Amino acid sequence: IRAEDRFYELSEQVSDLGFENPDTLDPIVSDLGLEVTTLSGVTHDGGTGIAANPLIIDAAFSERVLDQRENSDLIELSSDSRIILRVEDYRAAELHPLAEVSDSIAALLKLEAAEQLAAEQGEALLARAQSGESLESLAAESGAEYHAAESYRRTAALPLVLRDALFVAPQPTPEQVTYRGVALDDGSFALFALTDVVPGSTDNLGAPDAIANQSGIGDLSAYVSQLRDDASVVLRPELLQ
After folding, report:
1. Of 23, 204, 225, 228, which one's alpha carbon is 20 to 30 angstroms from that of 174?
2. Alpha carbon 26 to chain centroid, angstroms
3. Of 182, 178, 139, residue with least CA distance to 163
4. Residue 179's CB: how many other CB atoms inside 10 A?
5. What whole-number percentage of the chain has pLDDT above 70?
């Protein structure tokens, strides 16, 4: 069986088990042998790693997942990545005495100042790169980390904001390289030079039936969930006797 077909088959099984057992992920683990990963410190503003993805944040704080404590629908993060999530614990926002949070406030202000400084220095280096100086020499001068040119797909393991900036940057020409800079979630600032864009190909997609089936499963799950939320139930005791 092709890897793509197996991926879509497994995605469908995860979606089915998550829908049929809305209050637990255990069947997904026991039946499919998949591993559950716990994310902590996720807020409305996001978190680190996968928790920074807006799709994850929206699902985690949806009424169905947060209030009703049910599994989410299968979320498509990329062409080869799917996730289903549920909330294990939730702590509502609360006020703390100033004495308890003063150190955190001071650290936050220092971090914001450092981020502002990094952005200002990054923009200055970006202007120099756009004027013709090489990124390698600028990195050596400023003590920054430098990565040689390489190709990246939309599913590349890059910081999300950097990947988004990379794939919305203007396409370069043989005469003009595209230089851009972006502030990262960790407070650092990244510069990149885009020298070439290779059009995508559909040759490595899964079987059309598998793709259509996976899309249909997501639509059906959302429709049934909506029906369940809108439904009213009338109990007739005489029918239970």
Report:
1. 204
2. 23
3. 182
4. 19
5. 82
Query: How many other C-beta atoms lie within 10 A of the C-beta of residue 44?
Result: 9
* Other beta carbons less than 10 A from residue 138's beta carbon: 17
φ, ψ of residue 237 to 5 degrees: the values are -55, -35
Q: Any idea how long the chain is?
A: 241
Provide the H-helix boundaries in the chain: 3-20, 26-32, 54-60, 98-130, 135-142, 160-168, 208-230
Token pair 């809108």: residue: 230
What is each CA distance from 57 to 34, 44, 54, in whole angstroms? Answer: 22, 7, 5
Which residue type is seen at 64? R
CA dihedral for 128, 130, 132, 137, sign (positive or negative): positive
Q: How far apart are CA 5 and CA 201, in angstroms?
A: 18
Place of tokens 């909330």: 87
From the CA atom positions of the chain, what is the Rg in Å? 24
The number of beta carbons lying within 10 Å of the beta carbon of residue 76 is 15
